[in-house]
Structure formats: C-alpha cells, structure tokens
Amino acid sequence: MLEEGSIERVLSLPARFIDVTFQSSSSTTIVTKDGRAKDISTGRSSGYGIRVLDRVWGFASTNKPGDVLEAAQRACKAAKSGDDEVPFNPRGGVVDRVSTRPRVPPAEVPLEDKIELGRRAYESIKDIDSVVSSSFTYMDSTTTKVYMNSEGTRIESDHTRVAFFASVFARRDGELQVGSERTGATAGFEFLREPERAAEKAAGKALRLLEAKSAPSGRYRVVLDPQLTGVFIHEALGHAVEADHVLQGESILEGRIGEEVASREVTVYDDPTIEGSFGFYIYDDEGTRAGRTTVIEKGVLKSYLHSRETSSRLGMENTGNARAQGFEYQPVVRMSNTHLAPGSAELEELLEGIDHGVYLLGSKGGEVDTAKGVFQFSAEEGFLIEKGELTSPVKDVALSGETLEILKKVDAVGRGLGMHIGFCGKEGQAVPVGDGGGAIRTYATVGGMR
Amino acid sequence: MMVEEALKRLSKTADEAEIFHLRTRTFTVKTKRYGIDLFKENSSEGYGIRVLKNHRMGFYFSNRLDGDALEMAVKVAGSAEEDRHHALPGEQRYLDRDQPLFEMDVEEGIKMAGELVGACRDHKGVDPTAGALSWSTSQTTVANTKGLYAVKKEASISAYLSTVAKNGGPSTGFHFQVSRRKDIDPLEVAGEACRLALSSLNPARLEAGEMPVILRPMAVAELFEYALIPSFSADNVQRGRSKLQGMVDEEVFSDVTIVDDPTMEGGLMSEPFDDEGVASKRTVLVEKGILRGFLYDMYTAAKEGCESTGNGVRASHSSLPQVGPSNFIVTGGQRIESEEEALVVHGLIGAHTSNPISGDFSCETRNAYLNGRPVKKAIISGNIFTILQGGVGFGSDVRQYSAVVSPSIWLPPLSVSG
User: Fold this and answer.
1) What domains sit in chain A, N to C, each tagged with a CATH number?
2) For B321-329, what is the mean pLDDT?
3) How far are the Cα atoms of A156, B3, B13, B82, B276 from residue B10, in angstroms, in the given order?
4) Nearest CA in chain B to A331
C-alpha cells in the first residue's frame, strides 16, 4: 500500500530535488528440469526508492513504510557532502497514468496452465536422438509503479512482461553441447503460445554443435547474423554512447558527435516505443517521456543516450534513457531496444565474394571496454564461409576487435530486422532490453579453440 | 506474524514447512573521477516460505509474513508435481565460532571513499573513473517444522576502483577488495588499479601462437567460476551435465587439490550453516588429482541417498535453494618455475561465455604482459579439463575473489591470438 502521507513529507524535505518511486510487483517463475516442474516460485514484493539531489545524489530504499522518512532524511544529509555540484536542469511537473494492457493478465491464469508450457516444450524434444537434458524457464511479472517528484510530477504505470527460456543439452560420443533460445515480450500470457518452437530451436542448435568443428583463429571477413549484430551494437557501440560512460572518460566516442564513426551503411536507433517489445516503456524511471533516438545516421554519430543529469551536464537533449531494475536501485543511463537499421542485401549477397571467412550466429554474451573501444563476445554457433558458400559448422567461437574499426569496415547490411530479448547487467542492475538489426558483413578477429 | 507462529500454522495445512527470513542493510558510496557521486542505503526484509505436501513443493516469497502468503505457498504445492526427493533438514549442530561483525557510520564510509579516489593523485598520468565503497550487515534465519531454528549474522565491506591512463593509451585498470572484517585497504585498491593502468600503456601487438599463460588470482576466479565450478554441482552431475560424472575415485587432474570449505577462517563465504540450515562442513572434491565427490544440497542428496554437503545457496529470500560453492580452495604440488615467456594475465573479459559443461573457453585478457611488457590484445583459448590434466604450476600469492581461493596458476601452452 502506498502511504501518501509519508511521501508528502519526504517530497518536502529540504533539497534541490527529490523523487520517490513506490513499486509493487508480483511474479511467477517455473523451472522445468528434464520434464519436471521442479522449482515453482511465486511471490510479491513492494517498496520505496527515494532519490535526493543536493550537492550530490543520495538514495535510499526500504520495504518498510515506517522507515521511509528516516531513510530519506539520511539520504538528504549525505547528499550535502562532496565538493561537486551536480548540474540538473529543473523542469515542469507531469501528471499521467499509463498501462501496457496485457490481453491475458498472468494473474488470471491458473498455475497449471503455466506449468503446462514447460511440459509441452519438454514433450516436443524429449525423444530426439542425443538429447540428454533440458531446462525450460517460464517467467511472468506484473509491476505497478507510482513515480512522484518535488516538481509535481506523478506518473502511475503498470507493466506486464512474460518470457520463456529454453536450454537443451545433447550428447554424442562423450561430447556434450547446449543450445539456448529466449523469447519474451511486454505482453500477457497470450504471447507464449508456442513453447515448442523455442524448445525445438534450442535442440537444433545443440545438435548442430555436436557436428561442429573448432573454429579457426585469426583475422577474417565475417558475417554476423541479426542476433549477433544486435549484441555487437548493444555491447560495443551502445555502451559507448551511454552518456554516463562518456562523462566518466570511459568512452571512445567522447567528443565525437557529428563525426563519421562508422561506414555509411550503418544507422543505429535506440527505441523504447516499439509496441510489445521487451525493452518497451512509455516514461523512463525519472519521469521522462520516451522516444526513438537516432544514435548513428549513415555513419555519423548523432546522439548519446541520456538521463536528466547527463543531458544537463553536457547541455544536450535528454533522450529518456534513465532506467532502474526496481525500487531498490537508482536509475542509470540504459539502452532500451537498440538496433542497426536493416539494409537490402540477401544473405547470399553478403556471402558473395568472401573467399575464406566465418558466418557467426547468436550470442552467449560478451563484455566490452568502452574506454579502449574493444569488445569480446562469443557466438552460439558459426559456419565457415568458403568461396561465397557456407560450409562446415564451427563451435565455441569468440569474436573480438576494435569497435570503431569494425563499424567502419561494414560494407553491407542484410534485409529484415531481427530483434532478440535479453537482460542488460550494467552496474549490477538487470533491465530488460531488446537488440537486433540486419545481418552485417565486416572484418573481425575470430578466436577459436584448436 | 512471527516465524514460530507461521510454522505452527503451516504444520496444520502442510506436511513440512520452512521459513527463510533475510534482513539486510547495505550502504554504498559511489565515486566518479575524484568526487562522491552517490550515497546509497538499501534496507530490505523478506521471507521465503517453502512447504511440502504429499511430496509436492510450494514456494511463495513476500516482504510480509501474513496469512495470505502462507496460504499461497500451500496453494502452489497443490499445483506442483509429486517429487519424493524434496526434503528439509532436521535439527543440526553448528560449529561454534563468532562471526566478525562491525559497525560503520555514513561519515566514516564517505571519508574512506574519499581516500580511495584521493590516493590516485599520488600517481601521475592516471585518473579514477568509477569506484565504490560498500558495507553491509545481514541476518538470516532458517527455521522449519522438523525442529530446525538457526540464525546467523554477517557483515562485509568492499571497495573497487576503475582507472584510466590516457597518454600512450588509453589503458584501463581495475582492482577490488572484499572482506568480512573491517580491514580493507582503500590505498592498496587505488594503488593497484593505478599501477595496472599505467603499466599497460604503450602495449605491443602480440603474435598469434601457443604460449604458457599465468593467470593471476582474479583471472583464475573469473575462469573457474564459469568453466570449472558448475561441473562439481551434483545437480549438473545427476542431469548428465558434467564431464566428471561417473569418475569418482578416478584421476581427473594432475597434482591439483580442490576443497570446498565454508569453515575456513576469514573466508568470504564462511558461515555456520547453508541457506537450508544444514551445518557447514569441509568437502574434499579433488585430492591430488583424484576426484572424491561433488557438492550437494538437500534435494540432490535425497536423490542419491547421501547427505547434503551444506551447499544449498539462495540468492535472496525470493529464490529457491540451488547447489553452489562456499570457499572453493584450489592448491597443487607443482610450483611456478618461471614467469618468463609466459603471458601473465590479471583479468579476463567474457569469462561468463565459457562453456560450463565442456569447459571450453575463449576470453579476451585485461592487463596482460609478456616478459614484463604490456600486450595490446590477447585472446586465450583452451579447455579447463585438458589444462588441469596437463600439469599446472602454483604461485604463493593466494587471494580470494568471489568463491575461489587460489594463488596465480601457470597453464601449459594455450592458443593465444592477438
């Protein structure tokens, strides 16, 4: 329950700016291991996050309504320390109420029906030769939030998300491989109609990996499928245009707005407004109305991604990218749905003229050093490209290189936008994001295991 | 409602029940360049309610222990599948050792964070980027209807700092310390982070090829967490997801010993009991290369008819227990003979992309050196099982990062690409 009285008192504490987020959520997670719905976890949580700006930021969170005022007072006191004065442009208040309106709210679906999804997924792959083990995870969460600040803003919102993760293990001749697949959306239970598809895709990957050879190591002409393109755009470019990284001196793109940083084939957007997307939101977590941001247009760097603070510090327009995992966390600059705009090439055209290269698909995650502009991530699977044709499957292949060099060497982009879902873990806060693009052709260092 | 009262109520509607209660309070002072960026305080309290009814398990988590939450847990059990391996432990005897606790006020924390970034002024040509000082206290209660009632209190403190050196770079450095006692040294954290960034300036390009690799303790921990530890989980073993399955009492590695020991003095993961209330004990996993066993929680132990090793771990009150390591201590008989001609690696990028089953990995390195000279970019690839079979050497600089307690480790020639 939201305690209006104590919020009033918090918002009127002496500080330059205060905001309070009250959040209440319920969720269900079901892990089906080898056909058994072993771990079923349901529950609810609620609490308050209070942010105070004076000289610097103070933040407090608690799930005890009785502690809110005292915690806010401690945050107020701490916010007066430090010699810095955080620039923060004031603005007018907004009152609004928004909803993602799921067609079938997960709360109205019997638990048995949710368990059934994992069972169906298992049934669809259990008899496939060489499949030895599987895990399927069903997740739903429904969150209601009230955001209030000392400028008079009050935004009430609710958000429903569902997701289904599959991982299938296959073994042959002592070799064990795993294939994974994820699907999810800002939607209700209606979105997860075909758990079998995710299971079959994951099984297909595991089986292909059993056939795969180790990848070669060295510098190659490469083609990245839309999913890996998305991960590259998120990890290598996206994190480097987060304005907090720029301000911390941790971005290779510092001071380069308006410059050509990629080939003319490259246009990149960050777009939280894509209906039903995993990274969807209407207002960010400091009450800024969200919109599509053009990050790179035909190779030219157009914008960083901003929060209120970073846009105030850099004197740039706020893009509404301040996001928090939940009330326990302060919002930081985050991506939403980040993608490289598709081009017109068919896959065959992308492969054409590559004598000896690697086609890389999917991602097992990665990391990036945005200050040095280098990245590394692992593809889920790959194929050798020989004389313009896909030949042997390869496995355990890492891709790395210098972000800008790779962006400059993109000489063709495939048609069709493929978007994938994930959770970005910046600063220890997991927030749902989407990333994708068209397939790209470029050069990179491929590190395989021989 | 109190825990005892809740268990009393649940004993009327369920066969067995457990309440896991976690109360935490964490303070963090984040730094940005030379200043304080954010002061943060999180306090939270939550309950995880687990019930067994007709061998079906129900779980519900909540910030409040009330009638609704209890009812929901029982209701979930009604929809769950029957599984005879769900089990809760009875009363336990715990090792009687005081946990080191300490108090710290906000002013003291802000002062220490100031020392952390301020120390960088003594190092020319390098600046701090992001850092933090964080301290927390927690109280965990695990109680069940089989007579178990266990309470533990813990405290910890940590500091980390990232740095960047620009002239001749940019190059970056990162270092951190964590302790269960109030004994971390912000000056050492800052000094090491600055030193790493500065010593990585003007790197040379590395020729691709095979060469021995020495992983410093932080890199060892990063690699082992993702590529090795999962294979010791009984859950993975039982489900055919471990290369070590069926190899107990066989020689799996060369002269390497691995022990999981939650009773280790001063260990970051030391505790009197695990998150199911099972008393902590030392478990030998590998003895001089011979595989001796795996890590179990109550469920996986029931499945094999053995005892839990006390490795039931919960991420929070809202999570069910899973098998996880405590202090994962790695030692060996071979010494590192020479660091010459070996790629010395302080940290890894992308260790989490390692294959947790096959042990294959391919990671970019952070702060890597060859014969004392920094290298620009190096990807090291290999298989953790092949490496540990092949003979590795151990240094004497033992440190603990996350669960892994290890010195630097010398690895036989690996594929390295620049």
Assistant:
1) 4-211 (3.30.2290.10), 214-447 (no CATH)
2) 98
3) 37, 11, 5, 19, 18
4) B38
